[in-house]
Amino acid sequence: MNALVKDPQVTWIDVGADTDIPRRGARRLKGPRGEIAIFRTGDGQVFALMDACPHKGGPLSQGIVHGASVTCPLHGRVIDLATGESLGADAGKGCAPVVPLEVREGRLFIGLART
Amino acid sequence: MTKQCLVVIGNGMAGCRAVEEVLKRDPDRYEITIFGTEPRVNYDRIMLSPVLAGEKAFADIVLNDEAWYREHAITLHTGCAVSEIDREARVVRASDGTQAAYDRLILATGSDPVRLPLPGVDLAGVVTFRDLDDVEAMVVAADAGGEAVVIGGGLLGLEAAYGLARRGMRATVIHLMDVLMERQLDESAGFLLRSALTDRGVETVLGAQSEAILGEDGKVSGLQLKDGRIIPCSLLVMAVGIRPNTALAANCGLNVGRGVVVDDQMRTSDPDIFAIGECAEHRGIAYGLVAPIWEMCRTLADVLTGVENCAYGGSVLQTRLKVSGVDVFSAGRFSGGEGCEDVVFRDAGRGVYKRVVLEQGRVAGAVLFGDVIDGGWYFDLMKSQADVSELRETLIFGQAVTEALRGVDPKSAVAAMADSQEICGCNGVCKGAITSAIGDLGLATLEDVRAHTKASASCGSCTPLVEKLLAVTLGDAFQAQTGPKPVCGCTHHGHEVVRKRIVSEGLKSIPAVMQALEWTTPEGCASCRPALNYYLICAWPGDYQDDKQSRFVNERVHANIQKDGTYSVVPRMWGGMTSPQELRAIADVADKFAIPAVKVTGGQRIDLLGVKKDDLPAVWADLNAAGMVSGHAYAKGLRTVKTCVGTDWCRFGTQDSTGLGVRLEKFMWGSWAPAKVKLAVSGCPRNCAEATCKDIGVVCVDSGFEIHIGGAAGLHIQGTQLLTKVASEDEAVWTICAITQLYREEGWYLERIYKWMARVGLETIRAQVEDLEARKALYDRFAYSQRFSRTDPWAERVAGRHAEEFNPLSRRLEFEPA
User: Fold this and answer.
1) Which whole number is the average pLDDT over B325-349?
2) Using an 8 Å Cβ cutoff, are B427 and B454 in contact?
3) In this predicted complex, what is the ipTM?
4) Fold exhibited by the domain B554-625
5) Which residue in chain B has the smallest CA separation from A73?
6) CATH classification of B126-240 is 3.40.50.620, yes or no?
7) Helix and strand element counts for chain A (H, E)
């Protein structure tokens, strides 16, 4: 949990409680560099990615979450929530950037680079 | 060691495939540069016809996106025409000054469409059919409607005409010969093709010679034929053949005939310059189809990476026409002649014609119309020059029948194929790649193979081969899985078993189903979760709690997601009836929320497009206030009930079709189904509500109501079949609800009514709804389920249900120290 203070170049912002994210679902929020999607899996893990599929920019936050991946609602590309990488036949074809995310005492913190 | 420079002129299918093949063999050997004259990445030119027909989008046919060029460090110059090859300095130069030095040079300049030197050829509206720009020009012309003339009744011309007809133009094909596609088809198949095209809105004029293109104000207005006839048109497409693009080669002194002359190693008269594809001439032939190009590319890549003894020996050709619903296959010779004999099969009812030409006991050619499933088999027999005299009696019935009767294991042929043999032409996947993926990744199903190798994932014509490969590679392990197709990769059970066991074992939640049926993934995937959620809703109405996280976004959000992440909103208009008050409310909503597009739908309703997700509840609140509810335009469930004005207004109406439509919609709305369900009620057999292409359609007649089912007018176009006829409106409602319930209980997820009907048989369905007791039981189950369904999902969300779905997690995201 000390990870939050490690990097002086990163500002951590409280964006809500982890229970605000539905299980097997996602919420979105506006970041300074575009929409961010925060996902919660069936077993309670949380992940954050930029909310744009590497295929056609589809909003990943609107997809179906299964295991630790999400299926893009526009054309069905499957994205690994932990790495943002495309999976299956699309492996290697681009990735959705990962957004730093930490959970501290039930609160979600998004890490944003200071500019 | 520094890399050698490989320069490719031509960013089309041949040029890029050659590079792919080289990279596959030796990714580090060359520094690669590609020049392309089109201002875009490489795409599948063959699929331009479906793009023209509106069946595919450009994005669907891109073969190599920008990432591919980047990934392989390929320098790509698009929109850049090479103007000179300096063989002395071994440099190519483009007109804009770009240049590149080469150690090896590949010419893949393709071909240009032939423009007939007719008077008027330079008028606006005279186009050819070669690249995306041509398609875009045709689409723009087609949007204005009117008439189109296509000169040339070959493969390309017919596909162009079909595409234009699909886009609403009246299309006429002018063909010099007496048979369409005369190089590929005989007269019988040509005749069937001609009538199939007429059914699809394409007229054909055979034996007609073009004389002059007529114009008004610099724009094309018609085509005059030699016999004096004038065919008016606002668009004229020339599809009369192609001419290899050899100017560059000729200018630098290479040996050029009809194309750039190459040897069996694809080498031109300069040993460091190669030519492939439509610009090349090999053993006197310049090919215009894709299969030979792939073969040339493989040989060339072998040559360029130092494989010894490789040679291209010419190609045997096969042709398939890409016109939806018209299956045509042709290969080899069919003109007959001495020593040739024909085996012919016709089935008038199905519109099938098959002809196989034998020469000295071997297949010399085949023409198939209407049923082309065995095209690949005949083609293989022809290529291998196998002796088929033993098979002769059953040959025409196809591979399955022939091999079953002879006790041949159909898998043996597949087992004998070489690893390098290509299985999937669309995606260039060979046997070895598939078998090793099956082994290394533990693939067990067709879907797995598609997901990991892309084999059979495009046009699907190699599906039987891929299935056989699975069978050969897996042996008994695959045998255990034949039978119904699994729901998805998470289970080996088919839909039917899953549905039955949900009911018989009383499974009432998704985890319960996954446990009982031994799902192989922890929580399923985006394919099976929505299916299970539906099966549970259908099996346990009022009892099962809908799992919104197992819904596809449209059904979760109750609106249709659009390409830019906004949504479209369609309020219900019962039976297509609306009122000034509703229209005012819709107009006010569009103004208030600055909704960018308002469109009338094909289902007699109004679509508000471009609504932001955050605005959805407020938009719905206003629509609700005017008395409107969700139209479920996003649902696997009841969509619209289209009606005509019936006896209320129409002088031909035999029954109150509007009233029946409204009654059906008010009773059935909100019901979920395996796939979308569209209804229509026409007041007389003139059928203005187009009931005979709906999932369920009613055609009113004087003596009652004809109930038709199994129509579709989307991806597939199919007329309905008459299921039954009833005398009263009440009976019509009972029957339609009973059919719907039967479908709800038996259909597989995403299986439309027409597919379900084809699977279970019209008679089975008829027996259920004509048995009055069975009909009543079905109706009662439907009515019970509707007690829990007719709630407006919009109103629920306006009232605050699932508010988190529509609100961003945090509206502000500012830099505050945590």
Assistant:
1) 78
2) yes
3) 0.86
4) Sulfite Reductase Hemoprotein; domain 2 (3.90.480)
5) B553
6) no
7) 1, 9
